[in-house]
Structures are given as structure tokens and as C-alpha cells.
Design goal:
Blueprint lengths: L3 H29 L14 H4 L3 E11 L10 H17 L4 E7 L4 H17 L7 E7 L9 E11 L25 H10 L17 H16 L4
Parallel strand pairs: 2-3
Antiparallel strand pairs: 1-4, 2-4
């Protein structure tokens, strides 16, 4: 049977081990806990702060290739132009510009195509005063110059990706994500926003359909009484 001295020594040893364990655990938690105002296990910086989505004016353009032998717009060209016109009507209330090449080998064909493009815009509901026609100088010896359609609209954008200001091969003991982290996600979100104003304020609630509401309430009441007539 062990002596009281041995039991006492064992008790002191166990308490010492327990105290040491508590101290080590506290040190580990402190190292992983709050630092620089961040919570436990959190990344010290936020990719939404490094790559913020902002609203700014952006010029939207469409280059329509016109060959020197073209006499009319192809079906593919018309589809692309109509899609661009629809994008303009959704995004902008300003002017839309048709820029025609001047002095190029396809200048004659481009002039004829310009009239057809204007007709497409008018047929799509674009007011005539909002259609601006201009020309730009093109090299006569170069390739066929395109007709450029353009308009300016408020658009959601973020800073470009692919920036690597730090060496990823260097050990980082601060648990920070690299600078380019999250940039592609922010760019994709900005590109998918149909209405940039959704980032500023929510849309108004649509009016209640009283007829549909009455039908739903009536169905609920009849289901509760078991009357299906």
C-alpha cells in the first residue's frame, strides 16, 4: 500500500500536469483568437474589400464586320444587332451611336449597312433623336473596317484580376488569403447583375393580386372543412 507521501506527490504531479495543460491550451487559443480585431479562425482581410463592386459609367460597344461585297445584313448580323439594341433599351436612356468607317475599302458597303442598322433601331422602338450617326477615318489600304455601335450606361464593375503583388511561395504565418483571391467571383457577380440599381436599393413590391389572393384563401377554407365542391 503506497504511503501518504507517495500519494501526495502523485496528487501534486497531477495538478501540475493539469495546470500545464490549461496554460498550453490558453496559449493556443490566444494565438488563434482575436488578433487585429478579427475573430477566431477568420481571415484577416476580406476579398470584398480588396475587390469591391462599384457602379460607374461604361461604354458598351458592338463591332459589326462588313465586307466590301456585302449588300445587306446577314441573319447572324441582325440577331447580334437586335440583341445589342435590347441591351441598350434595358440599360440606358441616353443616345446610341452608329459609327461608320470613312475612306476604307468597304466604305460603300458600310454606308448601306448603316441605313439598315438605323431601320432596325427604329423598328425596335428606339426614338430617332436618340440615334446619333458619325464616321471615323479608316486606312484605305487596311482590312475592312467595322461599323461600331455604342452607348454609355451605368454598369457594375470591379477591379481587374490577375494581380499578384506578393510571392505565394513565401510562408505566411498570418493566415491571410492572397491578393487575387475572390476577384473572379466578384467579377462574375458584377457581370450577372441585370439591374445595377439592385446594389443600391431594393425594388418596390409589386401590387397584390386580389383575385389570386381570394382564390388561395377560399381553397384553404374549403380544404379545412372538407368541402371540395
Amino acid at each position: 500500500m503506497p504511503s501518504r507521501t507517495a500519494i501526495s506527490a502523485t496528487g501534486h504531479f497531477r495538478r501540475a500536469v493539469l495546470v500545464a495543460t490549461v496554460l498550453v491550451s490558453a496559449a493556443v487559443l490566444q494565438s488563434c483568437g482575436t488578433r487585429d480585431g478579427m475573430t477566431t479562425g477568420a481571415i484577416p482581410d476580406d476579398y470584398r474589400t480588396r475587390h469591391p463592386i462599384t457602379l460607374t459609367e461604361v461604354e458598351h460597344t458592338l463591332d459589326v464586320p462588313i465586307a466590301s461585297g456585302d449588300r445587306t445584313l446577314t441573319i447572324g448580323m441582325r440577331d447580334s444587332i437586335n440583341g445589342f439594341i435590347g441591351d441598350y433599351k434595358e440599360r440606358s436612356s441616353g443616345v446610341i451611336t452608329i459609327q461608320t468607317p470613312r475612306g476604307s475599302v468597304n466604305a460603300g458597303a458600310a454606308s448601306a449597312a448603316r441605313r439598315q442598322i438605323r431601320h432596325l433601331m427604329l423598328a425596335s422602338g428606339v426614338p430617332s433623336p436618340k440615334i446619333i450617326e458619325s464616321s471615323y477615318g479608316a486606312s484605305p489600304a487596311g482590312d475592312a473596317a467595322p461599323i461600331r455601335l455604342s452607348f454609355v450606361a451605368t454598369t457594375a464593375v470591379t477591379n481587374p484580376c490577375g494581380q499578384w503583388p506578393e510571392d505565394l511561395g513565401i510562408n505566411d504565418y498570418q493566415n491571410k488569403n492572397y491578393y487575387n483571391f475572390g476577384c473572379a467571383t466578384q467579377n462574375n457577380i458584377a457581370a450577372q447583375i441585370a439591374n445595377p440599381m439592385d446594389l443600391v436599393t431594393p425594388r418596390a413590391i409589386s401590387p397584390i393580386d386580389a383575385q389570386q389572393r381570394s382564390a388561395v384563401i377560399n381553397t384553404y377554407r374549403t380544404a379545412g372543412t372538407g368541402d371540395t365542391d
